[in-house]
Amino acid sequence: MEAVFKLDPMLKRDCFELLELKLSKLLLMNDSQYPWFILVPKRTGIEDIYQLDWQDQQQLLNESSALSEILMQAFTGRKMNVAALGNMCSQLHVHHVVRFENDCAWPKPVWGYSPAIAYTEYEINALKTKLLPPLKKVLMPEC
């Protein structure tokens, strides 16, 4: 019997859950300084991409690529940073951060650069209104 997937407490604390995709949970990092989203494959005991089976690796790549394209179109960013670090939170999660030449950390990494600035409820609702329709259309076409 496969263990029930649970989101790591650190991710649960620092993020908002947006969507359940075929493989992953889509999260929004609660830092309004950057459009920062995270894909978390719903598999237990996985810390690195190579530990996923081949089909899940392909699905993660599909979800990540589609998410990246939608975010770059929505935010007209300069660069899309995609990374799976896992040094602080070992549960496999893939960061997607839209970067701009005028963001506060450019060109350095966003991790630990400055304290997070939480989203307001209005900002979260505006993001959901802007992003959920195209995300659902591409990442959840059966809906």
UniProtKB/TrEMBL annotation:
GO terms, molecular function: hydrolase activity
InterPro entries referenced in this protein's UniProt entry, alphabetically: HIT-like, HIT-like_sf, HIT_Hint
Domain HIT, chain residue ranges per copy: 4-106
Keywords (A to Z) from UniProt: Hydrolase
Pfam families (UniProt xref): HIT (PF01230)
Superkingdom of the source species: Bacteria
PROSITE patterns associated with the record: HIT_2
Protein's recorded name: Diadenosine tetraphosphate (Ap4A) HIT family hydrolase
